[in-house]
Write a structure and sequence with these properties.
Oligomer: single chain
Radius of gyration: 23 Å
Structural class: alpha/beta
Helix content: 40-55%
Bound molecules: adenosine-5'-triphosphate, magnesium ion
Distance between the termini: 38 Å
CATH architecture of the largest domain: 3-Layer(aba) Sandwich
Largest sheet: 8 strands, mixed
CATH topology of the largest domain: Rossmann fold
CATH superfamily of the largest domain: P-loop containing nucleotide triphosphate hydrolases
Order of helices and strands: EHEHEHEHEHEHEHHHEEHEHEHHEHEHHH
Strand content: 15-25%
C-alpha cells in the first residue's frame, strides 16, 4: 500500500523543494500540500493520509499537533524543523507526534525517518542509566553488555548503549563489531543531526533486535576530539530514539563521567571485590555523590565478583557502606570471559546461572520502575 502524505510547510521555496523530494520516493504519494496548518485541518475531511509532515517552525503549528492527531486519526505525524531542539521534541511526543525530521531532507533521510519512527514512534520517555566505577576493572562493561541484552529481550523496547569510556572503550570488542562511525563522529556532527540521522551512527548488534551501540573511539588519542557539550547533545538526542540508554564510562571522576551522571536518571556505581579496598573506594565515591539532591534514589551501588553471592553478603556490604547495595554479581570469570570472547553474552548462553539470574533481576527492576514512572 502506498503511503498517502500531506505536507505542511509555510515557506514556499521549501515547500517546492520538499515536494519534489517526496514525489521521487517510491511507495509514497503526495496527496496534498499546504502552507497553512489551518487550511490542512479545514480541508482534512477530503483526505485520508497515513503520514503528515508538519513544519513546526512557523505559527503555532506545534500547539496544533493534538488537533492534527484527532482530525487524522490513522496518520502518523512527523514534525519538520530547521534545527533540533530537545525541549520541542519532548513536547511533540507528548502531543502525539511520532518523530522529527530536519529540513531540507533527502529521500534517504526521509525513508530512514519513516523507518525509524514508523515502527515505534519516538521514545515518549527515556531512562538514561550511567555506569560509574571509582576504579578500573570493576566488571562494568561486562555488566552493561549483559544488562542491555536482557533489557532489550525482556522489554521489547529500544535499548541504546553509548560507549563513553573515551580512551579504552571496548564494547565493540565485546560484541565483535567493526563500527564505521563512533562517538567521535557523532559528537563532531551532532550540530547537524536529528534523532533520525544520529540513529545511523549506532551499530546494530547481530541477531538482537532493538539494541544498538554507539561505539567508542578507535584510538585513545581520539578521546580529546569529544567535547563535553557535544557529548551531552548526543545523549539528549538519543533520548528520543531509545527507551533505555546505558552509558559506559571511564573509571573515576572526570568531566565525561560527571556529566553522564548528571544526565542519568540512575547511576550504577560498580566495583569488583578483590581484596577489600574497593569497599573503601566505593565509600569515598559515595561521599562525593551525596551532594546530589537525589543521591539516594539515583545512585545504586553494585558489587561484582561477590562470594558467597547471597542476601547476607549483600546486607553485609550495605552495612559496610552505610548505603543500600542494589545488586551483587557472583564470581564467574570463566563464564563472562568465554562469552565475551565469542561475541555472545552470558545472558544469551548461560541462562540458568546465578550471574544471569541476578542481571535479569536488575533488568526486571529497571522495567518495573520505568512502567511506574
Ligand atoms: N562477575 C565477574 N566475575 C569474575 N570476573 C569478572 C566478572 N565480571 C567481569 N569479570 C572480569 O573482570 C575483567 C574486567 O571486566 P570488565 O572489562 O567488564 O570491567 P570494566 O570495569 O569495564 O574494566 P575497564 O576498567 O577496563 O573498563 C574481565 O576480565 C572480566 O572478564
Ligand atoms: Mg570497561
Amino acid at each position: 500500500m502506498a503511503y498517502k502524505v500531506i505536507l505542511i510547510e509555510n515557506n514556499r521555496v521549501m515547500l517546492e523543494r520538499l515536494s519534489s523530494v517526496l514525489r521521487g520516493v517510491e511507495g509514497f504519494e503526495l496527496e496534498a500540500r499546504f502552507q497553512q496548518a489551518g487550511d490542512a485541518l479545514g480541508q482534512g475531511a477530503m483526505y485520508q493520509p497515513n503520514l503528515i509532515l508538519l513544519d513546526i517552525d512557523s505559527g503555532h503549528n506545534l500547539a496544533l499537533i493534538p488537533e492534527f492527531a484527532s482530525t487524522f486519526p490513522s496518520a502518523a505525524i512527523l514534525c519538520l524543523s530547521d534545527n533540533w531542539d530537545a525541549n520541542n521534541a519532548a513536547r511533540m511526543v507528548q502531543s502525539g507526534a511520532k518523530g522529527y525530521l530536519l529540513k531540507p531532507f533527502t529521500a534517504k533521510e526521509f525513508l530512514e525517518a519513516v523507518d525509524t519512527f514508523g515502527k515505534t514512534g519516538m521514545a515518549a520517555s527515556s531512562e538514561t542509566i550511567a555506569f560509574f566505577s571509582p576504579k578500573g576493572k570493576s566488571g562494568k562493561t561486562t555488566l552493561i553488555s549483559n544488562l542491555a541484552l536482557s533489557l532489550a529481550r525482556k522489554s521489547g523496547e529500544a535499548v541504546g548503549v553509548i560507549d563513553a569510556d573515551l580512551q579504552f572503550g571496548d564494547l565493540s570488542v565485546f560484541f565483535n563489531l567493526s563500527p564505521k562511525s563512533t562517538i567521535v563522529e557523532a559528537s563532531r556532527d551532532v550540530k547537524f543531526l536529528s534523532p533520525v540521522t544520529l540513529n545511523s551512527y549506532f551499530v546494530e548488534v547481530p541477531e538482537v533486535d532493538k539494541m544498538k551501540i554507539l561505539c567508542g573511539t578507535k584510538k585513545p588519542d581520539y578521546a580529546e576530539l569529544v567535547d563535553i557539550h557535544s557529548f551531552e547533545e548526543v545523549v539528549k538526542m538519543a533520548q528520543s530514539l531509545f527507551r533505555y540508554i546505558l552509558i559506559d564510562l571511564p573509571p573515576g571522576f572526570n568531566p565525561i563521567s560527571i556529566s553522564a551522571v548528571e544526565l542519568s536518571s540512575r547511576t550504577y556505581l560498580t566495583a569488583m571485590i578483590s581484596g577489600g579496598y574497593e569497599i573503601h573506594h566505593m565509600k569515598r565515591a559515595l561521599e562525593i555523590f551525596k551532594v546530589l539532591p537525589d543521591c539516594d534514589a539515583k545512585i545504586k551501588p553494585v558489587f561484582t565478583r561477590v562470594s558467597p553471592c547471597d542476601e547476607n553478603q549483600r546486607r553485609w556490604l550495605s552495612n559496610e557502606l552505610n548505603f543500600e547495595v542494589n545488586a551483587i554479581l557472583p564470581n564467574e570469570y570463566l563464564m563472562v570471559s568465554a562469552a565475551a570472547n565469542n561475541g555472545k553474552m552470558a545472558v544469551e548462553s548461560k541462562t540458568n546461572s546465578p550471574l544471569v539470574a541476578n542481571i535479569n533481576k536488575m533488568a526486571d527492576e529497571i522495567i518495573r520502575r520505568g512502567g511506574a514512572s
